[in-house]
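User: My instructor asked us to take a sequence, write out its structure as tokens, and then describe one feature of it. I'm not sure where to start. Here is the sequence I was given:
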Amino acid sequence: MSQVAFDFDLDDGGVPTYTVGELSEAINSALRRRFTDGVWVRGEIQGWSERGAHAYFRLVEETDDGKAAINVQFFANARMRLRPILTKHRLRLGDGLKVRIFGNLDFFAPSGQLGLKMSGLDPRFTLGEMALERDDVVRRLVASGLFDANRRTKVPAAPLRIGVVTSTASAAWADFTHELDRSGMAFRLRVIDVRVQGEWAVDMVSAAVRTLTRHDDLDVVVLIRGGGSKTDLATFDHIAIATAIATSPLPVFTGLGHEIDRSIADDVAHSSLKTPTACAAALVEHVYAFQSDVERVWSAIDRRAARVVREASTALVAIAHGVRRATVSAVERSDDRLAHRRQRLGVAADRALERSTLRISAARASLLRAPARLDPEVRHLDAVAARVRLLDPVHTMARGWSITRTSDGTIVRSADDLAPGTTITTTFAKGNARSRVEETST
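Assistant: Let's start with the prediction itself. The structure tokens for your sequence are:
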């Protein structure tokens, strides 16, 4: 069964009707007539992708109404032709790069999209835009007082504790660690692995720098990578990385691997070196200088100590000689005084002995005369002795008297001093008797 065909007699007013293919060809014909020699377009690369030898991206511009974009095809033959220009100016096309490109407009019928076949590039425009953006970042850093802030931080005398921001899969990391290992110094590293180019590089690098600078057990922070194109290194011109370095309380060393250009990260860092190896060598030199200073100070201390010991030894010998002379002199003076005193003592002893002999002779003569004077006293003493003998209790008790005492030795003089049951001791001329009182009477 065939479809019924309707043939309406329509009035198109003279406006032709195109098929899709005819319209596509008409658009391309109009574009070739309007843009005979091609067209220059400027904007920012977004959505860069590579498929084999070809590259595709969108060229984007922010407008008052939002965003304008056009698809760009960068085919292999054009890429091969433009490679010397990109290499000469050390440019690498990628997301975020502002470019001025040349090409031919083409409406691609299968997808119904208008695109630009890129065939040329103005490197001066890209370099100029990069320079303008760089200058703007520098002005902002200077205005905020951050441009030279990190250079005012002080590198410790022996920076052995190092925080490193790099891609650990890169040759930069290998070169850096090899140079430190070769020094034989006891470096201690804390590394954060980041991307150093591409879409995530700015956020990762700036966050890593801020993280390491918050550690109080680090001496310096090192930011290294292995070189690259101007566009790769433009990552380190970003305000976020520059601010992270400038506000770091620790000194930051950079070794970004480029021999010609300086990035803003280099400008704001405490020390910038050309390569990661040079960066490591600078740190090693700091430690070597500290070691040399320590050895020099120790040598000075050793020399000073030896000189002080020699001076003290000399002074001690002089003091010893002085003490010896003073001792000998004191002994000699003591000998003289002792001899003088011995002489005086001999004279005094002779005199005392002479005086004592005279007194003894006088006493002897006096004793010879004493008996005549002592007879009355002797007779008196004999009389007193006789009376004393008569009063001696022994003689009294011999005549029959006795002495009675209580148990505590008290002499009993009256019966009133006793009570029945009291133990008493009676002493006789010969012996004692112990008894108990049965009864007393007055």
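For the description part of your assignment, you could build on this observation: The first strand starts at residue 39 and ends at 51. Try explaining in your own words what that tells you about the chain.
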